[in-house]
């Protein structure tokens, strides 16, 4: 039991709240999970490996191609192959979702917000750290996929150099689609708050919706298709000057706006969904 | 003394159910205040509202005059252990605490200090997922202490602790209160509070039942009684009954006597030349007072045993 006259309560001396401290905390949280290193490393290797294998398959086909066919080939299909990048988008999106749902399902979110009641700042810091890490990985994967695949193809006169028109744009889009997918995942994770359901939502949004709106009969179906991140990425990779990708190909300007809009809306969704709800 | 935690007309509704209903109480510094109530009484909901994790439907709650969500950083103001499971099992205790410390601008050394204080230094590098419940409770207490805060909240902190751990926690709470801090500890077991708290806030079904000192609360229980042991039990019982007492045999050589003080019982026995082997007054059990007061508000009552 305490005495009748307890000591005066210790005075609170507090340094100014700095946003950089929140960034550092989120950085520590990200890398202190073994699954982060494994998951991101494995995901990057799988994507790069799939593209190298696609390049090897075309490399084997080059002897059967005419000189004109070689000259007119769309060599980025081996650098940024659809199957590898669809897997990478789902991987990045699920990873982004898990950085949010992981806090909810474990209950860590309560510890986090009891320590930092400024919830919007915490989520903003998490968004910045996750997207910066994913951008770095996206850039490494895009560069390795491009230079690896084109090096293989160049062995038999195929492939393009980095200075080929449209290549820098395709590489930039391929690097960026990784953080964009992650941020979309974080938005869905903040809305749904359950890991499995959020992962399904990521797959539906990033992979299945473009299939659902793949018709060309109605303009509005094409419009919706073009407004999806996967289609925007495809549009940017396909936009090599002088190459024809069909009359329904997505215009470059529109594609960049779509990627920017999805990032912004998803980030705001994450910040405000987490801020408003009970824990 | 200025109240540190001030709860006013606090109400939290989930649909048509009120988890907390018009709750008003204050918690003052320099004391360990027990927060008691049966399961489902609204203790955890109230603690979450104090920490700004849940928004009240109506009413207010302030810590040191401010709503907790108005503070940019919390650890230096309020340290809390809500649920020892509120951690990510994949991280080590050191990484978990380091991230929290960093978010609040707390120096790194403090992490090792609190790990040392709760006895987790040896396990600090291991994944929390492999910890026992008792170790997680210790980690939760380390988290609460991290910011050296003047206000500490603990939700059922003794769960899963071994007897040594329970003793340690009680000592820790008393020490924190003696340092002038506000210590608010919830429990559904009166016996846990009996040796820890000196102030009580008791709730049932989301409403306040009592907010007073432990002694005042104990006095609400059914009166005082005295345990008497004697080899001449039958004779003694007759004498005491004649003297106006109610006598209740406990089996063996002991009687529980109510309605007479220990002094009167001793005098009666002496005058009647009856040998006594033991004469000990018993304070009304807190558990009993708690059960009586909350009997009407128990949310999940087991069918038979009341």
TrEMBL record, chain A:
Database matches in Pfam families: ABC2_membrane_2 (PF12679)
| Tagged with keyword Transcription regulation | no
Alphabetically ordered keywords of this record: Membrane, Transmembrane, Transmembrane helix
UniProt keyword annotation of Repeat present: no
- Membrane spanning stretches: 38-55, 85-106, 127-152, 172-192, 199-221, 255-274
Name-wise, this protein is ABC transporter permease
Automatic annotation (TrEMBL), chain B:
Q: Which residues form the ABC transporter domain?
A: 5-230
Mind telling me which SMART domains this protein's record contains? Answer: AAA
* The keyword Cytoplasm is assigned to this record: no
Top-rank taxon, per record: Bacteria
Q: Which GO terms describe its molecular function?
A: ATP binding
Keywords, A to Z?
A: ATP-binding, Nucleotide-binding, Transport
Q: Return the InterPro entries for the record.
A: AAA+_ATPase (IPR003593), ABC_transporter-like_ATP-bd (IPR003439), ABC_transporter-like_CS (IPR017871), P-loop_NTPase (IPR027417)
Q: Which family does the record assign?
A: Belongs to the ABC transporter superfamily.
Q: Which PANTHER family would you find in this protein's record?
A: ABC TRANSPORTER, ATP-BINDING PROTEIN
Q: Can you say what this protein is called?
A: ABC transporter ATP-binding protein
Give the source species: Kitasatospora cystarginea
